[in-house]
């Protein structure tokens, strides 16, 4: 080994003291964390803590007022959402946004066209992704006819089809039954293991957070509270105080 | 497959119609084809990319006036004027699109912008010297015989087959587009712009392609109009009436579908003609009755078949899942 290699691989994502104001309200106030390549990090906190705002800043929906967001060392600040996607960030929306009048397969084809050379290739990849997420038998249905769990699944399928380096999941487990949650968790674990996909998720379903994440970042009122491995974070008095409550876990 | 056969039968029927039809019926069929062609061009913007234009007469009128003026003033052949006409209309579409899409003018506000542009272009053309003003621009007709596709002069049958070819051409182009990358981008933008952007689609660029393509194709229809009717008035060419008549066929037939504009034109034009003929036969002057009927037809469609006639007919025929599958 040469002298340079002992250094840890640089983080795929670093959030550096980002600040976001909406008029008078400081929604995010100096949040920082990094995500290593291949890691699964959960972003948790009470409603209104600023989690989705952090996601929207990463995804280019709006720019932070201060601080920086780096993907593999390159700043994402100032890029449009489509440019952030092409830089390698896939995302889902908390309130799902299916292309309702298109078929399930067409929805995923749109995502696959991000890198596919042509529509035929995009269709092949769309099939693969739909197989993997268990939506293959519904591929010809219009997306608007799907149930909420299936729509969430489609949201994930579409984002995965863009072949992201980093996947942002905004409450994809909310509203799923425990069995469905477990299946979704398994899918993400398999993807993470087999393809090295890095995932940052916002999640209230602690069952999923505990099973899936390697590390948890807690924020409250736009400010960082603490971070660590799931088992430690859920016993941290500050987290119990602001979010989980004394009865948790 | 069934749809393909039905389409071939339809094209064959139109192609053979001049053998049996008299001049009046042919002129009605030409109206059907013109309506289908212009509707298809508008459908690219609204049906595919979801951008409502209520001022499409702007592009048709610009196309008509540019090619006609070049011919009347400088003797430039219509086929060459067509190139200039398309270029001007595409540029106009680009300006309106850039203004609207860049500054986030959406939905009805974008539609209002398109109306405003059509209206002030109408006023502008009433005051450009050398174009006849409100009195109209008239194209000289040397002879109504022969076939001169360069100068776009000749027998009415030449115009009939020209618009038939244009309608078939735009249908095939739109089918190609819907199966293309750009087509998927348009549909995604139509359904949800935010989700489309999150999947890497440059929403602005996709919408610009739609408005420019739609404008250019509409302008070609305008050139056809100018050289077939040989008269142009700003109040008609850039009028709201024209804009509305362009959008009727695809709305009645089925927004965003390939067959919709054709079916809509096949339903509306003959019925409109029947009404005109019927009231004339009954001997009373009924200006605007046709428009009233179109309005009622539109109300009926919106109430009972909000997706248009074609999606309903396709389900009734059991042709779902055939080609033309989009939306």
How many beta strands in the DSSP annotation of chain B? 4
Portion of residues in beta strands of chain B equals under 5%
- Give me the number of helical elements of chain A: 9
Order of helices and strands of chain B: HHHHHEEEHHHHEHHHHH
Give the fraction of residues assigned to helices of chain B.
Answer: over 70%
CATH fold group of chain B: ABC transporter involved in vitamin B12 uptake, BtuC
Attribute tags:
heterodimer; A: 249 residues; alpha/beta; Rossmann fold; 2 domains; 6-stranded mixed beta sheet; 4-stranded antiparallel beta sheet; 35% helix; 24% strand; globular; disordered N terminus; B: 327 residues; mainly alpha; ABC transporter involved in vitamin B12 uptake, BtuC; two-stranded antiparallel sheet; 73% helix
Quick structural overview:
The complex is a heterodimer of chains A (249) and B (327). Chain A has 249 residues and is an alpha/beta fold. Helices cover 35% and strands 24% of the residues of chain A.
Description:
- The complex is a heterodimer of chains A (249) and B (327).
- By secondary structure, chain A is α/β, with parallel strands linked by helices.
- Chain A has two domains: 171 residues, P-loop containing nucleotide triphosphate hydrolases (Rossmann fold); 66 residues.
- Chain A contains nine helices and ten strands.
- Chain A is globular, with a radius of gyration of 18 Å.
- The termini of chain A are far apart.
- The N terminus of chain A is likely disordered.
- In chain B, strand 2 and strand 3 form a beta hairpin.
Topology:
The complex is a heterodimer of chains A (249) and B (327).
Chain A: E1 13-22, E2 25-35, E3 40-44, H1 51-58, E4 66-71, E5 74-75, H2 81-86, E6 89-91, H3 104-112, H4 119-132, H5 148-161, E7 166-170, H6 178-195, E8 198-202, H7 206-212, E9 215-220, E10 223-228, H8 230-233, H9 237-244
Parallel strand pairs in A: 3-8, 3-9, 6-7, 7-8
Antiparallel strand pairs in A: 1-2, 1-4, 4-5, 9-10
Helix pairs in contact in A: 3-4, 3-5, 4-5, 6-7
Chain B: H1 2-20, H2 23-48, H3 57-74, H4 78-102, H5 107-125, E1 137-138, E2 147-148, E3 153-154, H6 156-178, H7 181-191, H8 193-198, H9 203-229, E4 231-232, H10 234-237, H11 240-253, H12 260-281, H13 289-304, H14 309-317
Helix pairs in contact in B: 1-6, 2-6, 2-9, 2-11, 2-12, 3-4, 3-9, 4-9, 6-9, 7-9, 11-12, 12-13
């Amino acid at each position: 080994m040469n002298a340079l290699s002992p250094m840890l691989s640089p983080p795929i994502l670093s959030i550096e003291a980002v600040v976001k104001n909406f008029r008078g309200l400081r929604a995010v106030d100096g949040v920082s964390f990094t995500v290593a390549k291949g890691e699964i990090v959960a972003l948790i906190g009470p409603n209104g803590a600023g989690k989705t705002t952090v996601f929207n800043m990463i995804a280019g929906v709006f720019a932070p007022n201060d601080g920086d967001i780096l993907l593999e060392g390159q700043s994402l600040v100032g890029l449009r959402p489509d440019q952030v996607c092409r830089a390698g960030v896939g995302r889902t929306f908390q309130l799902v946004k299916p292309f309702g009048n298109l078929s399930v397969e067409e929805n995923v084809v749109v995502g696959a066209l991000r890198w596919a050379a042509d529509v035929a290739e995009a269709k092949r990849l769309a099939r693969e992704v739909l197989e993997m997420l268990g939506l293959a038998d519904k591929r010809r249905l219009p997306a608007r006819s799907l149930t909420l769990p299936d729509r969430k699944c489609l949201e994930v399928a579409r984002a995965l089809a863009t072949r992201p380096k980093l996947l942002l999941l905004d409450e994809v487990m909310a509203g799923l039954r425990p069995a469905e949650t477990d299946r979704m968790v398994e899918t993400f674990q398999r993807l993470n293991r087999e393809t090295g996909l890095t995932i940052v998720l916002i999640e209230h379903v602690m069952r999923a957070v505990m099973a899936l994440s390697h590390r948890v970042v807690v924020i409250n009122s736009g400010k960082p509270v603490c971070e660590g491995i799931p088992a430690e974070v859920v016993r941290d008095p500050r987290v119990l105080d602001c979010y989980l409550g004394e009865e948790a876990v | 497959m069934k749809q393909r056969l039905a389409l071939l039968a339809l094209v064959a029927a139109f192609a053979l119609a001049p053998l049996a039809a008299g001049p009046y019926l042919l002129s009605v069929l030409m109206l059907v084809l013109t309506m289908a062609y212009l509707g298809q061009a508008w459908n690219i913007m609204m049906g595919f990319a979801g951008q409502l234009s209520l001022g499409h007469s702007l592009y048709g009128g610009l196309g008509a006036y540019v090619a006609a003026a070049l011919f009347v003033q400088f003797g430039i052949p219509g086929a060459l004027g067509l190139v200039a006409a398309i270029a001007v209309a595409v540029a106009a579409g680009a300006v309106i699109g850039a203004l609207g899409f860049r500054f986030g003018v959406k939905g009805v506000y974008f539609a209002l912008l398109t109306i405003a542009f059509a209206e002030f272009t109408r006023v502008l053309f009433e005051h450009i010297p050398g174009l006849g003003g409100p009195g109209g621009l008239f194209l000289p007709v040397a002879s109504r015989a022969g076939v001169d596709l360069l100068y776009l002069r000749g027998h009415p049958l030449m115009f009939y087959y020209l618009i038939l070819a244009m309608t078939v051409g735009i249908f095939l182009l739109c089918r190609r587009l819907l199966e293309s990358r750009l087509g998927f981008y348009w549909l995604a933008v139509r359904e949800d712009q935010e989700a489309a952007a999150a999947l890497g689609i440059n929403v602005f660029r996709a919408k610009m392609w739609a408005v420019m393509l739609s404008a250019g194709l509409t302008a070609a229809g305008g050139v056809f109009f100018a050289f077939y009717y040989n008269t142009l008035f700003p109040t008609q060419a850039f009028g709201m009436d024209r804009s509305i008549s362009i959008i009727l066929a695809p709305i009645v037939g089925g927004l965003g579908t390939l067959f919709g504009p054709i079916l809509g034109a096949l339903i509306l034009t003959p019925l409109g003609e029947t009404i005109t003929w019927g009231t004339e036969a009954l001997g009373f002057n009924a200006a605007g009755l046709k428009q009233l009927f179109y309005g009622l037809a539109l109300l009926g469609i919106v109430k009972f078949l909000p997706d248009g006639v074609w999606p309903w007919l396709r389900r009734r025929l059991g042709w779902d899942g055939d080609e033309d599958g989009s939306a």
